Amino acid sequence: MAPPAGTTGTQLSRGRWAFAFALVTSLFFTWGFAYGLLDVLNSHFQTVFGISKLQSTMLQLAYFGAYLVYAPIAGVFMRRYGYKKGIHMGLGLYSLGAIFFWPSAKFEKYGGFVGCTFVIGCGLASLEVAANSYIAVLGSPKYAAARLNFSQGFQGVASFAGPLIAGRWFFTGKNATSLDTVQWVYLAVAGLGVVLNILFYFCDLPEITEAALEEEIHVAGITKEQEPFLKQYRCIFGWVAQTCYVGAQVGVASFTVNFLVDQGIGISQSRASTLFSLCQITFTVGRFVGVAILNFIDPALLLSLYGMCCIAFSIAVSQANAWGGVACLFCLFFFESICYPCIFTIGTKNLGVHTKRGSGLIVMGVGGGAWYPPAQGGLADSVNTKTSYLVPMTGYVIMTIYAFGIVLDQAVKGGFRVRNIDELAVERIAIAEAFPPTALPDSIARGNYPKSAPSSESDKKVDEEYVEDAKV
Q: Which residues cross the membrane (predicted)?
């Protein structure tokens, strides 16, 4: 049975909203830490196992390939059982994969690490479908991109904590050629997953259902979600854009340590890991800066501008030498910051009954991280690491085309938009001006309900209240 009709984020009290927001935001730290460690392990395993750059990307293939396989399953699961059970499933798989890093490190089996990384990826795919979708619908669509950027900013905090730990323990002394500390780090990661699972079990997390979301957008006269899912083109093309963007982002991060070491300016692996952590800090700062900007600037327009900057700086990284290349790399990390949350919120906006399925599809786009790094690794092995940064540039191009397409679509339908607006409020005001209150129940508020159904006095009162709210 599907979960009962619940509420929307705008109907929660301030206290319940803040509690739900903080609780789900804690999940972003969880997978940010795992992701930060992954990029450093990619370089560390090249030393320990004596494998090539291309072979080391098997970790990325397993991690992000899990998203490609499991994100749609997670979306269907949560549509049937709700967000909270989806979070339990994700944290369970996350802890299970992390605990098996211990025997993989003990017996020094690279294949074991790849398998465990796949299980962790399945768990994180579930968490991303739940958390990204939940934060996006936890309030007005106008600020969805800003909310998700803020929450994902804590993912960035954890992402640079991972490389800092690696720089201190993985690449110093005897640990530079052993896996001893990897065992303890992932044992702690597994413990964190178990603790979070217990906390979520005892916490009252409000269920925001698709039925409630559908009713909210129908009141504003938006009925596009009544069309089949395959005709939700903003979401479908959003998946394509997300696939290409995440592939580009993962490629950039996966070879950052190699790029810094190969610049020929005396950067050791340990120092490169520290610089990579600073790159992640730059990325995180960009996220929080983006929160402020997205309160005023339209997300699609801002994504277009940031996409062009990503294209320019990825080309610059592939051509610049010494510290100039390093500076361009830092700029690239900054302009990547808002891209994932903006694509997600743009692609899943006003999907109504398709919200969770659409969220699963957009998160499946994270699977792009499975095939971009091998392509970049092959070019890095055959030419050099610097030139390989032309591979992620292609992903930014496709993402930017998607963003420009959304900007043009908005311009055709309602004029060129610079400021961020509340579309639902605008539609309600238009309805208030076009229809008298007594006409609302049949023409708008009931959506696809039978037009001949009589309206009760209570229905009319509710409809009049909607009109008054819209005018305000």
A: 17-38, 58-77, 89-105, 111-138, 150-171, 183-203, 236-261, 273-293, 300-317, 323-346, 358-375, 387-408
